[in-house]
């Protein structure tokens, strides 16, 4: 059976093994590795104490009955006393020049014990560590732990040399001072008291004279670089200890100021109560972890590229180009930290589907962002300011684990004493971080942070425009019954990069929604300001309940009254989701586009009026269009369909072709397909897409006009009871009657004019609405005295309702309450309310 460890035999292997074996405390220590010839384990290095009268063979056959071959094949450590040794063949290979290592005795002395530990894992077996001691029972539990840690240390040295040998053409470059000084020591730490026993080699590594060591662990921690202390302390926390075969690399600063790499392997032993009791560990010189020429060149290239990056996006793209390929990472994200949100400047790969939900849920523009509070682990890393590395399978929140299931690196980007951003690097396959990688990433983080600050200073106008634009557009679009709406916004890449394009989705009453898209003339902060005012005004007019043409007429008069010469185009859609009827109003804007359920597309013929802000007496006619379930409605601004090199007609044909080819199952991907891949834009681009699915179960409604009579509340309760019984709602009937009583009483007592009661039953909710002619919203009292005879109505409504509130209507308002229904309560009867009692005055059912 042949084993291949993947690297050539060199003097470097002997250099590693010779320097790391000096602290085992044994009479004889050796390392065997697979020979270039198949089927043989050869002696790479042997270290023995003075006066040892025996040695070990130069090689062992893999198929033989030696302890070395047995441990290598099985992957299990052997601890052999004199009696167990007698069962093995210890003479080595037949052709060995030293067939009798026991000084002519033919067998080891009777007081010798032998430990044989395999090096490496089952996938890549590197060899065996052999420890011989002159005692019949030399390996107690603590010593076995330490020797296993030493074996891991030796394996790490061999793996590091293997990587260097594979990467270097000059073999002599491996024999520098880094490998020549490799050595190790052992320590024992009592966790309860912090008292520590460390051998002379550990103290030498930390630069502490034996007579000056006070046996306090704090003395060693004082020499550790502050950035590495949190990782060092985490190993005594539950679940914090690195897994078997992994090492923790730290940097210490010696008294002369020299910075030095050390590698640490340890085990925490628990007491009878399960609490951590002692730590056993080995520390070794890790000079071989110094940056290679390749790593230094990466930092140099990154530094040179960042010097020429003048915008935040340029900086982010340089980071991706410099790190993703050398680190073989699948994902790289760079985000700025603004208040409580991460504003992403670059995601690579750029496809939204390659990233977890939090990083693409607000993918409305070139500024996707995510909330800090949704990822507390990431927020904690930014507070600490230290690079964090998570191995495969780490327990992270889904939005972080999805970036790097095989390993995740988080780099806080520091500059001027604060954290200005974060870089996330994720691997799909299992990725184990080497100490040199941590050093590289730490150096990179500092460079990128400084570059971000420089880009902010050099691009202040762009950043101001970006913040203004982002604050004026909706952060999220609402969830809609019977459809899905998504929006995309891309700023112009020329000039100040701020314009007047906007979009909005407005939930209205009675199962209706409004969709708006518009464009204010020009590219300036003034255009963006007018855009924000127009968006707010149209939303307010729509929520008040005005018809679409009235909403646009009011917006036109508002813009004419502003102190501006700018005009705006707009397309407004009022959609009845239940019926699928849409009313369009167009004010100088591009016509809407439809994708029909069969995949065909059409440009809607919508009669239009002039742009807003042009004529005070302008008319804005309505166009009614029926939408079938499965229809996609696309509203866009002219930046997508027209440019200096693209006529409008050709641009609309291109958009229609993309609309026809896209899959409507994912509205977000469809909107991305409409944007195309253009990188340079002379104008802003806004797209609003609605996929109309229709209502599976239409809400059922009933209305009652409340007459102002002494027993008006009683009649309203009777109407409500009849209606709910006909609908099959029984469990929540008492709650609904109480809410109706309080809302009707308030309307009659505190308003004048008509009062109307509206009942709406949806799949899982009952909505009670009471309309009156007063525009004043009800005010819930902060407290009610026990002796008061009123003032508790709204408190009762709040207590009984899943939600409640007030919305303005034309000249008045509606106070509403929603009551959650039990899962079993569904529409149980098609009878009209009051069928058993005959018709009642004031009833209207539909």
TrEMBL record:
A single Pfam family it belongs to is: SpoIIE
Q: Which residues form the GAF domain?
A: 8-168, 311-462
Start and end of every PPM-type phosphatase domain?
Answer: 479-692
Does the UniProt entry include the keyword Calcium?
Answer: no
What GO molecular function terms would the record report?
ATP binding; kinase activity; metal ion binding; protein serine/threonine phosphatase activity
Which SMART domains does the entry link to?
Answer: GAF, PP2C_SIG
What EC number(s) does the entry state? 3.1.3.16
List the catalysed reactions. Answer: O-phospho-L-seryl-[protein] + H2O = L-seryl-[protein] + phosphate
What Gene3D superfamilies is this protein classified in? Answer: 2.10.70.100, 3.30.450.40, Histidine kinase-like ATPase, C-terminal domain, PAS domain, PPM-type phosphatase domain
> What are the entry keywords?
ATP-binding, Hydrolase, Kinase, Magnesium, Manganese, Metal-binding, Nucleotide-binding, Phosphoprotein, Protein phosphatase, Transferase
Tagged with keyword Cytoplasm: no
Source domain of life: Bacteria
**Positions of the region Disordered?**
822-846
Q: Matching PANTHER family, A to Z?
A: STAGE II SPORULATION PROTEIN E (PTHR43156:SF2), STAGE II SPORULATION PROTEIN E-RELATED (PTHR43156)
Q: Its function?
A: Primarily acts as an independent SigF regulator that is sensitive to the osmosensory signal, mediating the cross talk of PknD with the SigF regulon. Possesses both phosphatase and kinase activities. The kinase domain functions as a classic anti-sigma factor-like kinase to phosphorylate the anti-anti-sigma factor domain at the canonical regulatory site, and the phosphatase domain antagonizes this activity.
In Swiss-Prot or TrEMBL terms, this protein is called: protein-serine/threonine phosphatase
Q: Which organism is it from?
A: Streptomyces tubercidicus
């Amino acid at each position: 059976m042949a084993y291949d460890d993947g690297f050539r035999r060199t003097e470097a292997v002997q250099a590693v093994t010779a320097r790391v074996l000096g602290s085992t405390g044994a009479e004889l220590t050796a390392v065997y590795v697979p020979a270039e010839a198949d089927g043989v384990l050869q002696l790479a290095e042997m270290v023995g104490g003075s006066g040892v009268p025996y040695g070990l063979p130069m090689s062992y056959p893999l198929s033989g009955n030696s302890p070395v071959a047995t441990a290598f094949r099985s992957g299990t450590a052997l601890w052999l006393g004199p009696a167990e040794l007698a069962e093995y063949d210890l003479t080595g290979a037949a052709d060995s020049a030293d067939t009798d290592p026991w000084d002519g005795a033919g067998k080891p002395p009777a007081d010798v014990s032998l430990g044989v530990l395999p090096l490496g894992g089952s996938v890549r077996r590197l060899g065996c560590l052999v420890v011989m001691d002159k005692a019949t029972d030399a390996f107690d539990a603590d010593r076995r732990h330490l020797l296993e840690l030493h074996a891991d240390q030796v394996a790490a040295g061999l793996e590091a040399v293997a990587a260097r040998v594979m990467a270097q053409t000059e073999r002599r470059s491996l024999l520098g001072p880094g490998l020549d000084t490799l050595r190790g020591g052992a320590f024992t730490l009592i966790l309860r008291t912090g008292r520590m026993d460390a051998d002379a080699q550990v103290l030498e590594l930390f630069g502490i004279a034996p007579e000056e060591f006070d046996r306090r662990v704090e003395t060693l921690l004082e020499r550790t670089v502050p950035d590495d202390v949190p990782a060092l302390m985490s190993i005594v926390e539950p679940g914090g200890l690195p897994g078997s075969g992994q090492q923790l690399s730290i940097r210490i600063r010696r008294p002369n100021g020299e910075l030095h790499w050390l590698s640490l392997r340890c085990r925490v032993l628990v007491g009878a109560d399960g609490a951590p009791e002692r730590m056993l560990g080995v520390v070794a010189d890790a000079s071989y972890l110094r940056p290679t020429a390749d790593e230094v060149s990466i930092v140099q290239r990154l530094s040179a590229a960042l010097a020429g990056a003048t915008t935040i996006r340029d900086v982010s793209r340089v980071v991706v180009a410099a790190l993703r390929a050398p680190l073989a990472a699948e994902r790289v994200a760079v985000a700025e930290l603004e208040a409580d949100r991460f504003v992403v400047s670059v995601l690579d790969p750029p496809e939204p589907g390659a990233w977890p939900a939090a990083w693409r849920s607000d993918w409305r523009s070139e500024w996707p962002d995510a909330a800090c509070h949704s990822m507390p682990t990431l927020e904690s890393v930014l507070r600490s300011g230290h690079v964090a590395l998570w191995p495969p399978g780490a327990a992270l929140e889904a939005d972080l684990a999805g970036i790097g299931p095989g390993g995740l690196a988080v780099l806080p980007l520091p500059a001027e004493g604060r954290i200005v951003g974060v870089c996330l690097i994720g691997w799909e396959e299992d990725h184990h971080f080497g100490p040199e990688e941590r050093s590289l990433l730490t150096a990179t983080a500092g460079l990128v942070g400084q570059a971000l600050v420089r880009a902010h200073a050099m691009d202040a106008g762009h950043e101001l425009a970006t913040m203004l634009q982002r604050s004026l557009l909706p952060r999220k679009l609402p969830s809609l019954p019977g459809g899905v709406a998504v929006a995309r916004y891309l700023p112009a890449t020329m000039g100040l990069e701020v314009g007047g394009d906007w979009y909005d989705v407005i939930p209205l009453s009675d199962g209706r929604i409004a969709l708006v898209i518009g464009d204010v003339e020009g590219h300036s902060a003034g255009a963006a300001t007018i855009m924000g005012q127009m968006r707010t005004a149209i939303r307010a007019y729509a929520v008040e309940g005005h018809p679409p043409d009235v909403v646009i007429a009011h917006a036109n008069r508002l813009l004419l009254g502003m102190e501006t010469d700018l005009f705006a185009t707009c397309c407004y859609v009022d959609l009845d989701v239940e019926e699928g009827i849409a009313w369009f109003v167009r004010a100088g804007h591009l016509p809407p586009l439809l994708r029909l359920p069969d995949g065909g597309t059409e440009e809607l013929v919508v009669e239009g009026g002039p742009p807003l802000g042009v004529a005070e007496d302008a008319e804005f006619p309505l166009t009614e269009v029926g939408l079938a379930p499965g229809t996609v409605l696309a509203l866009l601004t002219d930046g997508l369909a027209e440019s200096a090199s693209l006529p409008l007609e050709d641009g609309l044909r291109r958009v229609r072709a993309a609309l026809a080819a896209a899959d409507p199952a994912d509205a977000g991907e469809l909107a991305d397909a409409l944007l195309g891949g253009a990188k340079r834009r002379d104008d802003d681009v806004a797209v609003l897409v609605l996929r109309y699915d229709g209502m599976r179960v239409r809400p059922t409604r009933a209305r009652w006009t409340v007459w102002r009579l002494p027993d008006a509340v009683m009649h309203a309760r009777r109407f409500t009871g009849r209606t709910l019984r006909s609908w099959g709602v029984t469990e929540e009937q008492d709650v609904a009657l109480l809410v109706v009583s309080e809302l009707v009483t308030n309307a009659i007592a505190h308003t004048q004019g008509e009062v109307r009661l509206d009942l709406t039953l949806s799949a899982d909710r009952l909505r009670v609405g009471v309309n009156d002619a007063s525009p004043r919203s009800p005010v819930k009292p902060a407290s009610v005295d026990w002796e008061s005879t009123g003032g508790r109505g709204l408190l009762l409504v709040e207590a009984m309702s899943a939600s409640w509130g007030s919305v303005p209507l034309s000249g008045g308002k509606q106070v509403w309450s929603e009551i959650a229904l039990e899962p079993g309560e569904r529409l149980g009867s098609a009878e009209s309310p009051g069928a058993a009692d005959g018709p009642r005055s004031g009833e209207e059912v539909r």
